[in-house]
Amino acid sequence: MKTALALGGVLVVAAVAAASWVLTAPRPLDAATIRAVSEPGDPASGRVVYFLAGCDSCHMSPGQSDPLRLGGGQELKTPFGSFFPPNISSDRADGIGAWSAADFANALMAGVGPREQHLYPAFPYPSYARMSEKDVRDLFAFLKTAPPVAGRAPPDKLGFPFSIRRAVGFWKLLYFSADRRPRPTDTVDIEARGRYLVEGPGHCGECHTPRTVLGGPIAARALTGAPLPEGKGKTPNITAAGLSDWSEDDIAYALSTGLTPSGDSLGGPMAAVVRNLAQVPQADLAAIARYLKTFTPGGGA
Amino acid sequence: MKTTGRFSIAFAALALGVGVALAASGADAIKERRALMKENGEATKPVVAMLKGAPFELGAVQKALKTYESAAEKMPGLFPADSQTGDTHALPAVWTDTADFDARFKKLGADSSAALKSITDVASFKANMPAVFKNCGGCHEKFRTKDN
Q: Which of A91, A172, B41, B111 could anchor a disulfide with A263, C-beta 3.0 to 4.6 Å?
């Protein structure tokens, strides 16, 4: 009897462990998406995607100002520990020069690394997952044109239990699975284009949407402003309510110059975003402005 | 003994006085530098509007540039060690990278003076003003945070 109970207990524990293991497995993209992103990309269009997505803000080598020197290693402090974004230069040994389009798209859109491991969502793939397949392959084509940079970033310094990489699988179950499909980008509808840019490559919500203690976005308060991960300060509310004193022109102008209608100049991490958005067509900034001016949490994002 | 006692009291009083003076100077410095930045913002407002297409007005541009010149001169002296906390948006980098912080104000002052000479009409305004404004964002990126 006792033996049977003990055996039953062991079986239950084993079943839960096995189920957890299965549930938390990294899930790469489906074959159709892989095929679509593997077609040849256009590096010129990819350059715009690059600056919209702001890859350099986290991946550029520290202590220098070339946005295309992507050696990684810049410390990103968060409540969970310090991340050191990797080298994404075209270096074959230390960067992503040897990656296939499938490797790249899996990282960007599924948060799965080339060894089929989970990537931490400090890398904003929950947003990038919404990028169109065309933008992803164009971006990949552009990244290949950036110079190789040797050297690897130091390993992340994360506190327990965040240091358990497999646990990112649970995070994905909670926050990632629902809304991860690519959205169309070629649209004449300026508001739809704006939504795509804000929720996809622009990943505005990664800093402007408050998070739960587990680091998941709180959809009901999307884009209403959040504490900066490094500690001091907050990002502003960029919903229609938060921007009620701003015109669409004001927003588009501030995004590319940093200058606000009140005579201030945007600072903190937004200054790097502004440098990037200065490289982006005005029409895209106008689309972002249009969408933000209509956005109220609960209606999406 | 008596002398030592009196000396101690005098010393304590002096120390207390210095402490009070320092406390006052920290809070005052914060108030003063925030007022200067507020003036900068107010002076900038019409200039930003002009860059976006409002009618050009040389007087307002010159007023803004003179405001920056004077602020650039005063600001580096308004960040004493005891003004790191309180009602301030200044980041610790102000005190850990003071040389860069001071150099940036020096550059803002010099760029403003140069622009005062070079800006005479709309064309020279549109050509030269954005470079002056680059100073604002560069400094706010590294040395300021906001809690809006």
A: B41
How many independent structural domains does chain A possess?
2
How many Å lie between the alpha carbon of A166 and the closest alpha carbon of chain B? 35
Instruction: Choose the mutation target among B36, B47, B48 for the interface with A, i.e. most A CBs under 10 Å.
Output: B48
Say if residue A173 is in the same domain as residue A285. no
Chain A residue closest in CA terms to B140:
A267
Provide the domain limits for residue A67.
28-186
Residues A112 and A132 in one domain: yes
Q: Are residues A125 and A210 in the same domain?
A: no
Q: Are the Cβ atoms of B146 and A233 closer than 8 angstroms?
A: yes
Q: Model's pTM, two decimal places? A: 0.89
Alpha-carbon torsion angle B22, B26, B29, B35, nearest 10: -140
Q: Which of A243, A264, A277 to mutate to test the interface with B (most CBs of B within 10 A)?
A: A264
- Domains of chain B in sequence order: 2-143 (1.20.120.10)
A259 CB within 8 Å of a chain B CB: yes
- H helices of chain A, in order, are 2-23, 31-37, 43-53, 55-59, 101-110, 125-128, 133-143, 168-175, 190-199, 205-208, 248-257, 270-277, 282-294
